[in-house]
Amino acid sequence: MHTMRQDGGSVKDYKLVNIYQGRLNKDDELISSLVNLLKDKNIYLAKIEGIGAVSSACLGYFDVHSKKYREIKLDENMEIVSLLGNVSLKDGNIFTHIHVVLSREDFSIIGGHLFSPTIVYAFEYQVFHFEGDELIRIYDEDTGLFLWSR
Ligand code: ZN
Q1: What CATH number does the domain containing 22 carry?
Q2: Closest CA to 131 of 20, 43, 7
Q3: How would you label 95-131 residue by residue, b for 16+ Cβ within 10 Å and e otherwise?
Q4: Among candidates 42, 58, 32, 44, which has minimal Cα distance to 118?
Q5: What's the 87 CA to ligand 1 centre distance in angstroms?
Q6: Which of 2, 38, 119, 139 is deepest in the core (most CB within 10 A)?
Q7: How far apart, in whole angstroms, are the C-alpha atoms of residue 70 and residue 130?
Q8: In percent, how much of the chain has pLDDT > 70?
Q9: Residue 11 CA to ligand 1 centre (angstroms)
Q10: What is the pLDDT of residues 103-145, one digit of tens each?
Q11: From the CA of 98, how far away is ligand 1's center (Å)?
Q12: Which domain covers residue 60, as residue numbers?
């Protein structure tokens, strides 16, 4: 049985400043290229969306028992069916948290938490830049994850 709580987490409100739309180049490393763009524009609060294709990817699954990510490296061409992420701060640095759904040659789907290195074949994205209170990731004992502080 899982314990249930109803204290509703936490919420803050933000204003949309700008939307950047662009693409990455073939052979770019996806996450570090996005982080460089965010650093260039001093964006540390944002939502990221994207579609495209990769020539390899590194995915993670968070094992709640060991409280560690299991990682797999996929060396194959896949479609990025959907990529969603957010941008906040961890240890004073811009930090992206990105999840992805990929489709393989046989049209099956695989997905998870996105790690580096993930190599772009083609990638089209939108970055929704917000303004408001900083979101800072701190270690959460309950989950073993770095979550947004309240
Ligand atoms: Zn994740």
Answers
A1: 3.30.1330.80
A2: 43
A3: bbbbebebbeeeeeebbbbbbeebbbbbbebebbbbe
A4: 58
A5: 12
A6: 38
A7: 32
A8: 99
A9: 19
A10: 999 999 999 999 999 999 999 999 999 999 999 999 999 999 9
A11: 6
A12: 17-148
CA dihedral 144, 99, 138, 148 (to 10 degrees): -120
Determine the length of the chain. Answer: 150
Residue 36 lies in a domain: yes
Give SS3 for 30. helix
In eight-state DSSP terms, residue 44 is -
Q: Residue 60 Cα, ligand 1 centroid: separation in angstroms?
A: 8
Burial class (CB within 10 angstroms; exposed 0-12, middle 13-18, buried 19+) of 78? buried
In a domain, 24, yes or no: yes
H and E: helices and strands count for the chain: 1, 8
Give a yes or no: residue 133 inside a domain: yes
Per the structure, the count of domains in the chain is 1
What separation in Å is there between the alpha carbon of 23 and the centre of ligand 1?
Answer: 23
Residue 134 forms part of a structural domain? yes
Q: Which of the 8 DSSP states describes residue 66? A: T
